[in-house]
Write a structure and sequence with these properties.
This protein is mainly α. It has helices at 16-40, 44-47, 52-59, 63-84, 90-111, 114-145.
Length: 150
């Protein structure tokens, strides 16, 4: 389907690949919500793969950090739903999620022992999350400019 085609409301029709990205974004960001909820509720089945030292680190986050983490993951998830319902508000929510993610990343790696605790693999996962948020921010901005989002 061409991006030039419009529906009866004058909006640009979303191509199939737009829906694929929107669905994958929603599933990916749902993982972030699940991770946050499982960590905060200290679900043993989920947290059992971590060492005692790592658990103490996760459970020792200051409340402001936990609040920023919550807002970031839920903003990204709601923004992904915004893509599915083709709303322009997805872009500022992805922007908020990315900004808050950066704050948490800086705190973890500059002011705590995150790297010593999680190693290069943990940093790699964090950087992948950041890249995905930045990519979804760009994608939502592009979709808004192309009038796929309204």
């Amino acid at each position: 389907m061409s991006l030039a085609a419009t529906d009866t409301g004058g909006r640009t029709r979303a191509p199939v690949w737009f829906w694929v990205i929107a669905i994958l974004a929603t599933l990916w960001n749902a993982v972030g919500v699940v991770d946050y909820v499982m960590t905060q509720f200290r679900v043993d089945a989920y947290m059992s793969s971590f060492s005692e030292e790592q658990l103490a680190y996760f459970y020792g986050f200051p409340s402001w950090f936990v609040a920023i983490w919550a807002i970031a993951v839920f903003s990204a998830f709601i923004a992904s739903i915004g893509l599915l319902v083709r709303k322009r508000w997805a872009e500022p929510l992805f922007g908020l999620a990315f900004f808050l993610f950066l704050l948490n990343l800086i705190y973890q790696y500059a002011f705590t022992g995150a790297y010593a605790m999680m190693g290069a693999a943990g940093l790699g996962v964090s950087l992948f999350i950041g890249a995905s948020l930045l990519g979804l921010l760009w994608f939502s901005r592009w979709a808004g400019q192309k009038k796929i989002l309204r």
